[in-house]
Amino acid sequence: MSGGEEERRGNRLTSTHNNEARVGPSGTRTGTGTGTGTDDILSHVQLLNLKSHKYNSTSCSLLDPIFQPFWNWLTDRLPLWLAPNLLTVFGLGINIVTALILLVYTPDLRQPVPPWACYLNALGLFTYQTLDAIDGKQARRTKSSSPLGELFDHGCDSCSTVFLTLSVAAACQFGFNPGLTLFHCVLGSLLFYCVHWRTYMTGTLSFGLVDVTEAELTMVLVQLVSGLFGTGFWTENVIYSLSWGHILILTSVPFELYSIGKTLGIVVGKYGVGKNGSTVAGTSVISPAIPIFLAFAPMVWIAVKSPQGVYHSHPALFIVTTGLIASKVTDRLIIAHMTKSDMKFLDRALIGPGLMLLNIFLGLGMSEVMLLWGSLLWTIFDTYQFCSRVCQEICNFLNIKLFSIDYIVSSSGGGSSAARVGSLRKKN
């Protein structure tokens, strides 16, 4: 996600709903597609609210206007059969793969990374940022805009945030400063959550002068510097005990604190657009603080108090697990905003951290590394199942497909009728 979203994504709004029963990708029954099935995640009221949802954003990004001509030029060269969500998920995949390549070389975030891996990550990050910028343009160009597109875009962004921050930590060898690393990565996910928390309260997704586009391009620059001068460059002391890595983090903190402060200002002042300053769903503006607290607090406590030092021995694994749990909670916040519904406090992704806490409190002596791996695998499975079912229910209700679109091929004769053609027939 980046600033200038109104120009880049717009409102993805559509059509009719389908009452025919469907089977989800996992083979489980997803109900009738009307929100009345016993296995449905979204209720009929939520689906109706989603269908009437209108995208609203404001932006004063410094760099978005500079890149708009490039994004428009690139969009005009995309084939009309290419579904916008394919661009989104392809960008996410590139981001994850290039980040994992870095982590293969430095799982403890302390080892040097070869220059080619940093350059590859920079290219992957720029590709992700570009595809994220043009998926909405492609949706408007192919007249395939829908609320599902907006939801899918933001959901992929919440996952990407985890790997963006971790890539920087790997390229800068932040593992030599465990506390700083945890702070950097948790703050990245928290900032993304706060953006959508504000949206849940105000109904408008807002971006400032220095926001997502600027942050992502800064990360590209960091990878290029690491490739050119080596990852050890960021551990060199500049003044007293401050390294270039410290300076990189400290210069970003004011912008991050400002963003969090904007969110807390709306909460304290009760400036939500709902009745009596509530959220768009009419719920308390402070309620979203509880789910994200439950996502972060157990993992931070485990990082500090773990008797086996699981965070210090496996920082990358720990941060990915923590970040994906926060990503799942963020997805539920985005859904709550778009469906104008309340947000439950507990989530199944918290089972993993809960078991790790019980292991510590009860002195069971189980391997914390194994429990951490179990937490990660469970979170991935639970998030995939949740997201695929939500997408399937929305597709059924709106009678659309997730990874394919219908497009129009114009005849060369000028006076002849256009042919309606179906593209890929994949449904998810």
Q: What are the secondary-structure elements, in order, as H or E?
A: HHEHHHHHEHEEHHHHHHEE
Question: Poorly predicted ranges (pLDDT <50, ≥5 residues)?
Answer: 1-32, 410-428
Which value, in Å, is the CA radius of gyration?
Answer: 22 Å
Question: What profile does the largest beta sheet have?
Answer: 2 strands, parallel
Average pLDDT reading: 85
State which percent range the strand residues make up: under 5%
Structural class: mainly alpha
- Please give the order of strands in the largest beta sheet: 1-2
Tally of helical segments:
14
Percent of residues in helices comes to 55-70%
How far the N terminus sits from the C terminus, by CA atoms, comes to: 22 Å
Number of domain modules: 1
- Basic shape: globular
The count of β-strands is 6
Describe the structure.
By secondary structure, the chain is mainly alpha-helical. It has one domain. Helices cover 59% and strands 4% of the residues. The chain is built from 14 helices and 6 strands. The protein has helices at 5-8, 44-51, 64-75, 84-105, 115-141, 147-171, 178-202, 212-229, 244-269, 289-305, 310-313, 315-338, 351-361, 368-398, and strands spanning 57-59, 205-207, 237-239, 242-243, 406-409, 419-422. The strands form 3 sheets. It has a two-stranded parallel ribbon with strand order 1-2. Strands 3-4 form a two-stranded antiparallel ribbon. A hairpin with a 2-residue loop joins β3 and β4 (242-243). α6 packs antiparallel against α7 and α12 packs parallel to α14 (368-398). The chain starts with a helix and ends in a 6-residue tail after the last strand.
